[in-house]
Amino acid sequence: MTGVIESQENKDLRAAVAALGARHGRGFDRAALWSEAAKLGYLGVNLPEEYGGGGGGMAELSIVLEELGAAGCPLLMMVVSPAICGTVIARFGTEEQRRTWLPGLADGSLTMAFGITEPDAGSNSHRITTTARRDGDDWILTGRKVFISGVDIADATLIVGRTRSAPDDATGRPAGLKPCLFIVPRDTPGFERTGIDMELQAAEKQFELVLDDVRLPADSLVGDEDAGLLQLFAGLNPERIMTAAFAIGMGRYALARAVDYATTRQVWKLPIGGHQAIAHPLAQAHIELELARLMMQKAAALYDAGDDIGAGEAANMAKYAAAEACVKAVDQAVHTLGGNGLTREYGLAPLITAARVARIAPVSREMILNYVSHQSLGLPKSY
Ligand SMILES: Cc1cc2nc3c(=O)[nH]c(=O)nc-3n(C[C@H](O)[C@H](O)[C@H](O)COP(=O)(O)OP(=O)(O)OC[C@H]3O[C@@H](n4cnc5c(N)ncnc54)[C@H](O)[C@@H]3O)c2cc1C
């Protein structure tokens, strides 16, 4: 069956990344792992070869994140830097933006964060109000963002804003607001960040951002002012696929710890894994993680084949399935360890919080169920 679901090349990639992950493990140093993974070509595996990338796609990039996660050392910024920002710039950036950013994103010397979420818009990204206006050749960006990951370690943040279109003279309709993407370097005047005190044990922090009349040169706008929505969606499918990879990796890590423990821990005559009440939920978790991975592979295959619409549905379903499988696997893993599930020594308890992230971000479980009920099933909209 070699290569039916995954090519031999990708299986080799999986094994090589797993070996890298095993060397770093749970107590990993984020920056050291980031630079080693980059040097080995893993971080830019999806980016075009002519800009220093590996020439692969989301199939390969998701393997890298899943395997690092399964080894206990996920790199959250992979979800945004090469997957969203790298994809958007490779597909829609100007030649200059590609040359400026892609080689660095590929070799890990540059990192880019991604900011769409706003305090007053939340799940409803149609309500975002960060607005860009022209001032001569420059853009002036004003607004607020929340929960943006890794802004402190990123060289720039790709900010989703809106530009005001001219009023339609023919219909007399007022000016509209079109989504658009801006590259905002970290130390740009007026671009302020405040760390959010999250209950998460992770190497990457989340930030609230204030953009107070941030002046940006004309070439900060990525792609076409009139095609912002299309460009945004091109980045959001990779984000969902990578969140699925993140969740599957974490679920596999927790499950492996639980299986180890259940094989050796003996309370009565048998190791606890011999009791079906312990074994079956672990088997179920394994099945559900495998199923989620299959959907993630489908989403990545569709995306890499250029089917953005098909990938949209599959990526949402994969993210949903992976998050649910991860939450269940972590919950069962902690339970399997009994009291040790809550000790610092075994280190599983923080995953209870971490596993919830994939259920909430980048799009919540409920918004995916809304999407599937409207788009896939044709049911009436509730909002
Ligand atoms: C650790 C972490 C990292 C993040 N990193 C980033 C990042 O790098 N960049 C970025 O832009 N964002 C990031 N986010 C933000 C994330 O994408 C949002 O938290 C998410 O989109 C949900 O938005 P919200 O928190 O405002 O929740 P809300 O939109 O307020 O939703 C709250 C609850 O209400 C439910 N709900 C809302 N509307 C409906 C509806 N119509 N029908 C049914 N239920 C509904 C939701 O499902 C949810 O359960 C991150 C979040 C976390 C937790």
Keywords:
about 375 residues, Butyryl-Coa Dehydrogenase, subunit A, domain 1, Butyryl-CoA Dehydrogenase, subunit A, domain 2, Butyryl-CoA Dehydrogenase, subunit A, domain 3, 3 domains, 8 strands, globular, FAD, flavin adenine dinucleotide binding, AcylCoA_DH/ox_N_sf, flavoprotein
Describe, in plain words, how this protein is organized in 3D.
The chain has 383 residues and is α+β, with helices and mostly antiparallel strands. It folds into 3 domains: 8-111, Acyl-CoA dehydrogenase/oxidase, N-terminal domain (Butyryl-Coa Dehydrogenase, subunit A, domain 1), CATH 1.10.540; 114-226, Butyryl-CoA Dehydrogenase, subunit A, domain 2 (Beta Barrel); 229-376, Butyryl-CoA Dehydrogenase, subunit A, domain 3. Helices cover 49% and strands 15% of the residues. It is built from 10 helices and 8 strands. It has helices spanning 8-24, 30-39, 58-70, 77-92, 95-107, 228-264, 276-304, 308-336, 350-360, 365-376, and strands spanning 112-115, 131-135, 138-149, 156-164, 177-185, 191-195, 206-216, 221-222. Strands 1, 2, 3, 4, 5, 6, 7 and 8 form an 8-stranded mixed sheet that branches. Strand 2 and strand 3 form a beta hairpin. Helix 4 runs antiparallel to helix 5 (95-107) and helix 7 (276-304) runs antiparallel to helix 8 (308-336). The longest helix is centred in the middle third of the chain and has 37 residues, at 228-264. It is globular. The protein starts with 7 loop residues before the first helix and ends in a 7-residue tail after the last helix. The model has no long low-confidence stretch (mean pLDDT 94). Bound molecules: flavin-adenine dinucleotide. Residues 80, 114-117, 122-123, 147-149, 206, 357, 360-364, 366-367, 370, 383 line the site of flavin-adenine dinucleotide.
